[in-house]
Design goal:
The chain is an alpha+beta fold and 131 residues long. It contains 2 helices and 6 strands, in the order ββββββαα. A 6-stranded antiparallel barrel has the order 1-2-3-6-5-4. The chain is globular, with a radius of gyration of 16 Å. 18% of the residues are buried.
């Protein structure tokens, strides 16, 4: 895939080959995971999905026989055969597995910490006085 120079991602995408289940209002389908980040996934399917931008879906990403990332999401990119999903709030076990997957593939704890900070930007404390 050609990368658009205006695409300034704040989260590292990890190429990861896995089959995933996508559950959406039109049913369920097994798709191929192309890449994953802390903020979502890019998937590929030879079968066209009956789904529109911003439609909700739940992704089941199997990392091993007993390791599952369950990712509630919304479709944010639609260019068949590619479908991009933005992650929404995940359960603690799923986000822990995703964090570990990203950590192992980044190989740089500082980069992981920076990405985690981007997920939860801290606002200025209104009670803190500024000079």
């Amino acid at each position: 895939m050609i990368r658009d120079p205006s695409d300034r991602r704040r989260f590292t995408r990890i190429h990861f080959d896995a089959e995933c289940e996508v559950h959406y209002k039109g049913g369920a389908l097994v798709m191929q995971l192309v890449d994953i980040s802390l903020r979502g996934v890019l998937m590929k399917s030879d079968t066209k999905l009956d789904i529109q931008l911003d439609d909700p879906a739940v992704l089941s990403i199997y990392l091993a026989n007993d390791v599952l990332i369950r990712m509630p999401s919304r479709l944010c990119h639609l260019q068949p055969p590619y479908y991009g999903f933005d992650a929404e709030e995940m359960d603690l076990e799923s986000i822990s597995h995703l964090r570990r997957l990203v950590e192992l593939n980044l190989g740089d704890e500082m980069l992981l910490e920076r990405e985690l900070e981007q997920m939860f930007p801290q606002e200025d404390d209104p009670q803190e006085e500024k000079p």
